[in-house]
Amino acid sequence: xxxxxxxxxxxxxxxxxxxxxxxxxxxxxxxxxxxxxxxxxxxxxxxxxxxxxxxxxxxxxxxxxxxxxxxxxxxxxxxxxxxxxxxxxxxxxxxxxxxxxxxxxxxxxxxxxxxxxxxxxxxxxxxxxxxxxxxxxxxxxxxxxxxxxxxxxxxxxxxxxxxxxxxxxxxxxxxxxxxxxx
Length: 182
Fold this sequence. Notes:
By secondary structure, the protein is mainly alpha-helical. It has helices at 9-20, 38-47, 53-61, 63-89, 92-131, 142-163, 169-172; strands at 27-31, 34-37, 137-139.
């Protein structure tokens, strides 16, 4: 009986997708020295509280301004988590193909969100400078690079699995008994 050698790369891919969703906990923007993550921004905009009092006041003041972006960020986060779960639950090559499609959608949402927020940050920067909150607006690149590296690794794993054929145990294991020709 020949059993197929199963790779567990779909689990690595799913876990990397889940890890990429952790970017919501990292501070991505500093406004006047106050570090703001996606999580703290969503909390401040929707529930009225955040991780620090100063950040809460600042984001509450920008609440109507930031609300559409927080909806998009929350949607991206939920889509990322659901995508990772679907990859972990899918079977064989279906998992890798769906992971690639879901990654393309995640990247599109994340890049469009980043571009929209980046355009608006120049307006926030001028308002912050006018109020005199110091160094203005700073975007933290390290969490973004972490996310990009995770996406690249996950994409490579998925492409490798789609392009490689599954081997059977007979192809992988050397023969145990010698073959005698009579």
